[in-house]
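tool=predict chain=A
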Amino acid sequence: MGQEEVDRIKNKFFKLNLNPTYLEHEEVITSEDAARTRGFELKQGIKSILFTNGEEWVVVNVPADKKVDSKKVASKLGWSNNKTRIGNEEEVMIKTGCKIGAVPPFGHNELIKIFVDEKVYDNKISTFNIGLREVSVKIQTEEMKVVFNNLNAIEGDFVKE
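tool=predict ok
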């Protein structure tokens, strides 16, 4: 697990003729650790959080310096606020194939709906882990928009103000 997601993501970039830079580094779990280790600003990272209502799943992608607003996620999906929650460690592993801290914005073990906060596009460069805590990617954000569009990701406002 994890390496399959790395390969899936690299294949998607290749098929879309995109040009990311792959980075290998010490294992990181938090967005803050990742930014420091990669040498980029925290806001350039894409943080990917798995949410559920107990039946359905969505991965919400936000700038790493922001927090996801679960009420906005629930509202967009028509889910009850009371039932909307972040997936636990076991659920994250089953649904994405990755450990918490390594979940990529796409390329998961299962086909999962993808949300992207529009603030992700405020940066010229985006960075994120791609399935393993010690492997990440640096890519032009306009190229990530190509990926998200290709995957029919839903764009919107999903961060806490």
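The two ends are 35 Å apart (CA to CA). Strands lie at 21-24, 46-52, 57-63, 85-86, 113-117, 125-132, 135-140, 154-156.
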